[in-house]
Amino acid sequence: MLNPHPGLPEFEYIKPASLAEASQFLAQHVGDARPLLGGTDTFVRMRDGFWTDKFLVDVKGLPGMTDLSFDQVKGLRVGAAVPMNRMLRLPDVALYYPLLAEAAESVASYQLRSRATVVGNICNASPAGDTIGSCILYDGVLEVHGVDGLRDEPLVGFFKGPGKTILKAGDIVLAVKLPVPPVSNVGHYIKLGRNKLSDLSIVGVSILAYPDKKVASGFHFRVALASVAPIPLELKNLTEVLASGKITPELLDVAAQAAMDACNPIDDVRGSARYRKYMVRNLVRRGLENIWLKLGQ
Ligand SMILES: Cc1cc2nc3c(=O)[nH]c(=O)nc-3n(C[C@H](O)[C@H](O)[C@H](O)COP(=O)(O)OP(=O)(O)OC[C@H]3O[C@@H](n4cnc5c(N)ncnc54)[C@H](O)[C@@H]3O)c2cc1C
Prior knowledge:
The protein has eleven helices and 14 strands. The protein has 297 residues and is an alpha+beta fold. It folds into three domains: 47 residues, 2-Layer Sandwich (Uridine Diphospho-n-acetylenolpyruvylglucosamine Reductase, domain 2); 111 residues, Uridine Diphospho-n-acetylenolpyruvylglucosamine Reductase, domain 3, CATH 3.30.465.10; 109 residues, Enolase-like, domain 1 (2-Layer Sandwich). A five-stranded antiparallel β-sheet has the order 4-5-10-6-7. A four-stranded antiparallel β-sheet has the order 11-12-13-14. It has a three-stranded parallel β-sheet with strand order 1-3-2, with helices on one face. Helix 10 runs antiparallel to helix 11. 41% of the residues are buried. Flavin-adenine dinucleotide (FAD) binds next to strand 2, helix 2, helix 7 and strand 10.
């Protein structure tokens, strides 16, 4: 019979003294160990029996993990162990990265966001991860420490499938870095869930836009979708559609239809594929209109 109140399985808690020690430990225990940040994905997956790691390697105390900084040259650096609430309290986040702020605020509840991190959201690689689309649209790059030292990994190409990334054994993400954003960027995140709090998205729509004199419409738009494909999906074709001519209600309709045509969702407990496709069209249309108003047009 299904146990309605399963407990956590036994595991060993490892607190490495250095990055090198942490990477080596993870590389030596492939399949048996994973890095731990807020634990809001990890403990649920372990409790439900999906993950059976013998070791959780707490990386929160390692150098640079809790650093949070913004400057006008390098942009934003969010250390892996910075909880979402702390990131949201940095005024530069709302000022320069409004899409990231709105997306992070949509994650579960205030209580959960005091543990949950953006890097954990990214590394968990759920197609439903609310903050991933915004990090992709702001051209996010991950700072990674592996057995061979430090390197940067762009988010484009990072995701390989549900729960799968290009990270190798021993890799630890230290931070997500977002370059200085385009001037006057505006953003909007729309999350359709089964309830207002604490649910994963049925569809998530991230939209970023900013003035761009080089294109016919005068504006550069980028759109990413959550929960409609095995990985978070940026719709590059929408950027082209929305650059192609004067922005009119008709062009927004064409873009919304193109978004619906480009995604290929599945049926699951949160919604059917057909429902998701129609919601993509409606929410992209609604989101573009909201963005258009924010652009002052
Ligand atoms: C009640 C509830 C509601 C939720 N609602 C939402 C929601 O609305 N939207 C949403 O997007 N998510 C939601 N989640 C999922 C979860 O909270 C987020 O994905 C969160 O951002 C994960 O961050 P974390 O720090 O807790 O990660 P952890 O659980 O610590 O780690 C997540 C994954 O990343 C790996 N990892 C951790 N640190 C590193 C590292 N430094 N380098 C490499 N890999 C690493 C871990 O091994 C694990 O596989 C919810 C979870 C719960 C329990």
